[in-house]
Structure formats: structure tokens, C-alpha cells
Amino acid sequence: MQLEVPEACNEVTIRSKKISLISSVRAAVQIRRRYRILKTKCRPLDSARKEDADQTKAPGISSQNSEVIEDERYVRGTAQYFTFDETLDKTHLKYKRRKKHRKSKILFPAKTRKFFPAKEKSHAKTCLFLLCAIVFLQIFNAIENLDDNLQKYDLDGLEKTIRREVYGQVFAIETTIEVLRNYLSTHIHNRPLLLSFNGPTGVGKSHVGRLLAKHFRSAMESENVLQYYVSHQCPEVKDTSECQEEVSGMISELVAKAELEEKIAIFIFDDVESMPVSFLDMLDGYFLRTQNSEFNNAIYILISSIDQDEVTKFVLQNTSREAVNHNKVLPELVDNLRASLIEYHPLWKHAEIVPFTLLEKAHVVNCFIDEMEEEGFYPDPNRIERLASQLKYYSVGDRKYSVNGCKPVVTTVNLL
Fold first, then answer.
1. pLDDT range class, residue 88, cuts 50, 70, 90
2. Phi/psi at 196 (nearest 5 deg)?
3. Please, what sign has the CA dihedral across residues 316, 322, 325, 330?
4. Is the confidence at residue 235, as pLDDT, over 60?
5. Most buried among 146, 201, 284, 301, by the most CB within 10 A?
6. Strands 193-198 and 298-304
7. Chain-wide mean pLDDT for the chain?
8. Is the distance from CB of 242 to CB of 267 less than 8 angstroms?
9. Burial environment of residue 202 by CB neighbours within 10 A (0 to 12, 13 to 18, 19 or more)
10. Is the pLDDT of residue 204 over 70?
11. CA 213 to CA 232: how far, in whole Å?
């Protein structure tokens, strides 16, 4: 008995057969197209190989040369065209490969502890640290030596004494103490120190000189100080050459004595305006570079009233400025005095100029108070005002400057 297949199933089988046939045809067509494309690409390479073969068969070319030509053409063809040949000889392609630099690694044994080698100690560092320590100790000792030298002369006590007993000379006191402090901080010097006190009479120049002599004699505990009054110890009647020999011998003696004691010799010359020129020439010789080193450790102080008119004129013309004793005003006076003093004698080229200015009426009153207390008088303000009014003054505006400073005070108090 035969089964009857429905018509719908027959149609499905027919359709599936047609689809499989169409797909196979399409695949064949695509393969053929790809083959034709590859064939067209490889066609120039085949023609090039045929030409190379013809050239190698030409007469006059050896077999070795023909092989070289064939290899070169073959390599050139392979570089220009794509092929599916796997029989290419890679020895013809010569190129250099870059060497890869691998980082060096420290290899440790498996059974030991991993650690870097110990660094060697540098002996140069220890030497450098030692040198720095030595330099530091030397600097520290030098600073201590500076303090020891200044303590030897007690300049703080000197400054207090001068400020207490001298009136109206702030700039002169500060300049003197500063110069002495800088010079006395060390014992070895390149040249002596020369101080020049210049100003009118009665303003405190000689008084400061006496205070300096008294202080250094007590501070150094020795007679290394010479206080020389030219008008008294070398008057006009006496021969100048004898005075020079006498002073030169005292200078040499005191300098040698101070050098043994490691101290500074101090020479104070008052009334220098009456000193002969030959005497000034003799003093100028101690400031030459050819002198022995022991003569460089000395201090010379010249007290004079040379160019006192220049100081008086400057003070009276500058009373309207903020302060005559101000540090910004008096350096101008110092420059003016230096120029005129150098014209007087070249000795003042080496000098530190210290100007002493005019004293006001209030300063003269203080001088009266001190003098009356020393003589045992009661300092009555009304009486002192009456005595101070008897002196001569320069009147500039509201200010009054004493013509002769405090010099007449002693004689006025003695007459009481």
C-alpha cells in the first residue's frame, strides 16, 4: 500500500533543491572572480621572470652572473608585487636589526638575603668637617680676643665719663668713641691713629684730652700716655730742635714699653696751633710706610683751635636746620675743615677730624653748676642765671651761643 505524499511537501523539497543549486553557483562565480583578480596581479611578475630568463640566456653572461641577476630581479619583484609563494629565500633580504638594550639587574643568590653592597666611607668628607670646625674655632677665638682687647681699655666707662662731664658735644663724643673702639679692638695695625680735635676756645677740647689721659693711665695701669702742652713745654724761647729731640725720645721710649706690654701708646698734644712747622714734619714722619711696625701701634691726638672761625661760621649759618650737632649736618663741616687743615700742613691727611661746635647758654649754665659744686658753693638757679648772663653770646634767632664757651666760668666762680 503506497502512502500518498501531499503536494505541499513536494513543493518544499523542490524549492530547497533550487536554493542549494543557486548558492553553489554563486560560490563558484565568486571564486572565479577572485582567481581572475589574483591572476591579473601576478601577470607582470611572470612577464618579468620571462625577461630575466631571456637575459640570462644571452651570450657573454656567465652562469654566476646570471644567478646574481636572477636573485636581484627576484628580490626586486618580491618587494614590488604580492605573491602566495612560500619558497622565498630570506637570505636575500639583508637588513640590520637593532639590538635591544636590556636593563642590568642585580642577581642575588636564592639562599642569601637580598641587600645592596655597603657604601664606602669617604675620607674627604671627614677632612672637610674637620677643617670647618677648625675655622669656626679660630673665628670664635678671634671674636673673644677682640672683646678682651676692648675690656682692657674699658671704653664703656670712658664714654660714660665724657658724656657726664662734657656738654653740647654729642657728635664729637660719638665720633671719638667709635674711632677708638675700632682701633683698640686689635693690637696689630698698619699705621698709627691720628685724631684731631678742632674748634673754638672753651668748648671742651682740652677737657676731653685730660679725661682721655686720666682714663687710659688708670685703665692700662702704666705710664704709656704722654700729655704734651706745646705752649708750656716748648715755648718760643726754647730751641725747637731740642723740643723735637726730647719728644722723639719720649715717643720711642713709650712705644717700646707699650710693645713689650702688648698695649697701645697714646700721645696727646695740646695747643698745636703754636707748634712749629718742623715739629709737625717730625710727627708726620711717624705716619710713613717705611716706619717700623712697633710705631704703628700708637694713638696721636692733636688739640688745636686752627680754623675756629670756620666752625663758628658754620654753626651760626646752620642754626635754622634741625640740629647743629646732628650727624647729617656736621659731616659737611668735617669736609670743610679737612680741606683747610691739609693746606695748613700735610699731616692732617692721615687725621680723623673731630669738630667741637659752639656751646649754647644752657650748656654754660651746666658748667656753672658743676664748677660751683666743686668749689663748695650752693648752686642757686637765680645766681647762676645772673652769672651766665654776664658772658658774651652770639644771638641767632631764639638761640644764644657763647663766644668763649665755658672758659670764663672758672675765673668767674673763683671771684665769688
1. very low
2. -125, 115
3. negative
4. yes
5. 301
6. parallel
7. 78
8. no
9. buried
10. yes
11. 17
Read off the pLDDT of residues 319-328 as tens digits, 9 standing for 90 and up.
765 455 555 6
pLDDT digits (tens, 9 = 90+) for 7-57: 555 555 666 666 667 878 888 888 888 888 877 766 555 555 555 555 545
- Best CA proximity match to 272, nearest among 288, 261, 284, 263: 284
Contact 183, 189 (CB under 8 A): yes
Residue 268 reports pLDDT greater than 90:
yes
Three-state SS sequence of 93-119: CCCCCCCCCCCCCCCCCCCCCCCCCCC
Strand order from edge to edge, sheet including 225-229? 225-229, 265-270, 298-304, 193-198, 351-355
The pLDDT, as a whole number, for residue 43 is 58
Residue 316 scores a pLDDT above 80: yes
> Quick one: cell of 75?
628580490
CA distance 299 to 265: 6
From CA 82, how far away is CA 400, in angstroms rounded? 121
Is residue 299 classed as helix, strand or coil in its secondary structure?
A: strand
Grid cell, residue 408, equals 670764663
What are the φ and ψ backbone dihedral angles of 96, each rounded to 5 degrees?
A: -100, 130
Q: Which three cell numbers stand for residue 310?
A: 670756620
> What's at 44, amino acid-wise?
P
CA count, 13 A, side-chain hemisphere, 220: 22
The residues facing 227 across adjacent strands are 268
- The predicted model gives 60-77 an average pLDDT of 49
DSSP 206-273: HHHHHHHHHHHHHHHTS--EEEEEHHHHS-SSS-HHHHHHHHHHHHHHHHHHHHHTT--EEEEEE-GG
pLDDT band at 290 (very low <50, low <70, confident <90, very high): low
User: Following DSSP, what letter does each residue of 366-387 receive, concatenated?
Assistant: HHHHHHHHHHT----HHHHHHH
8 Å CB contact between 211 and 162:
yes
Interatomic CA distance for residues 145 and 137, integer angstroms? 12
